[in-house]
Task: structure prediction
Amino acid sequence: MNKKKRLAIFERLSVAIPEPVTELNYTSPFELLIAVVLSAQATDKGVNKATLPLFGIANTPETILALGLDDLKNYIKTIGLFNTKSENIIKLCQQLIDNHNSVVPQTRDELEALPGVGRKTASVVLNTAFGYPTIAVDTHIFRVSNRTGLAPGKNVLEVERKLYKWVPNKHKKDAHHLLILHGRYTCIARKPKCQVCIIEDLCDFKEKLS
Result:
């Protein structure tokens, strides 16, 4: 796929998705960080269902610590891996208080040093909370990048490197959510909706569905 075609893809996606934002509900960088930690191997809808009552009573490192591990588990027990996630969140809150004055840091190294925060989670927080042009490659982005030929790769790091290299600069900040939303609602896993896809003619997928 050439540079001109990649630009056309993002130009069309940006028109079709004028507000490319996360579907996780949050009101602060801390709430977003907790939501993204919870979203691993979980749906945004499921996370939002759990965080609505949780954030109503505890949405700072101090209040979540005061809640305690057992009560935190009760709030997020509907989410996969809730035991491990609860333990990480408690440790994460303590580290934010001890090392960052309860403020979510804005560097990758500091974020990835927090319990339960890997490269993907850090990229989401940097992009969504702070506006950095980071691209977190989840299952949707990995699928869309490979299927369309936009940035094919055998693993998420290879896809991420190619996206950073090839996504037009003007679209780097929004690329993460443009690709996720396109993958979530149009370029879906089992039966992609090629017949209504706005980039169908730009896509290299050889098994397009009519």
